[in-house]
Sequence to fold (353 residues):
Amino acid sequence: MSLSCIIVEDLQVAADFLKKCCEKSGQVEVKDHFSNVSDALVYLNEHSVDLLFLDVEMPGATGFDLLDQIAYSPKVILTTSKPEYAYDAFQYNVSDFLKKPFTYQRFIESLQKVTAMVESIPATVNIDHIFIKTEGKLVRLNNDDILYIESMGDYVKFVTADKKYITHNTIKNLEDKVNKDSFMKVHRSYIINISKIDDIRENDLFIKGNEIPVSKAHKPEVMKRLNII
Amino acid sequence: MSFNFNPKIDRDFIISMYEDDYLYISEVFTTTLGQLVPDIEIVKNSYTSGDLDGLRKQVHKIKPAFGFAGLRGAEAICQSFEDECLAATSTNELKEKYRVLLQTIEEGRSIIQQEIESLKVYNN
Fold:
């Protein structure tokens, strides 16, 4: 398996070492390196990659700010020297955490986690429903019944026309699990059912009277998915 | 014949990172030194201007740079100083710790500079 990646890291020696590790592994192609979030965002708005090696503390915005602003969810390996970010990493569904400085062996272990995750993602193309764990039972929700999914910290809310279901999960995690033909992320806190959009005004969309924000980063993709004539 | 690193450099750690690729080790030291020089100035400016958060962030950045160069002692001192920054309310409270930090950073820079020179000879 060959993964495309970019490195977002302001410590040059760490970025160089990552490049060397990627080359040596023969499994990762480094497309580019950026030393700050804003330059990386420009790239990511125009290109898609499988994997991000992402530092957290950089000049200006943080690595987590970048994850809030990109319109899709590549796998992420955080490269930081601060293990305290582990909780945030979990919240962002980060695949692994490389504490700088790290060895090549540790890099490979990290990469193996990512490839295992990529290989285990089930094809969602024809899946017309999901099961969610709520109130002590597994509840089946048909895709067509779900209006949108909203983040509530460590929980998410599935909203249908007549009911709301709260379950322990994250939007980041759900992005990979829902049928991408029916659903799309429009904001760091919202995944919507595309077929349920009633109208769009400026930076909000409306579904059955519910106002849902559309982030600047996601808006171009939203517009692309609409059948505008 | 293996290269004799400065005793302050964790040789085993360096070898675990880069094996015996002394050309690459030399590159690592050169890159580290190149970034360390402007970073030290930012540390000094942050301290002088009382920018506690800026100071912590810069030390946070320098810390793994020492790690990649095998200067684990200097890395630990940076970590300790970073923790002190989080507990402090002003740079004035860090006077003695800052003196030790700066001495450590300068010593680290000097060691790296010497290692680059020695590696040049060794690699030739």
Remarks:
- The interface with chain B takes residues 10-14, 16-17, 20, 57, 81-82, 100-101, 103-105 of chain A (CB under 8 Å).
- Helices of chain A lie at 12-25, 37-46, 63-69, 86-91, 104-120, 171-177, 219-225.
- The two ends of chain A are 40 Å apart (CA to CA).
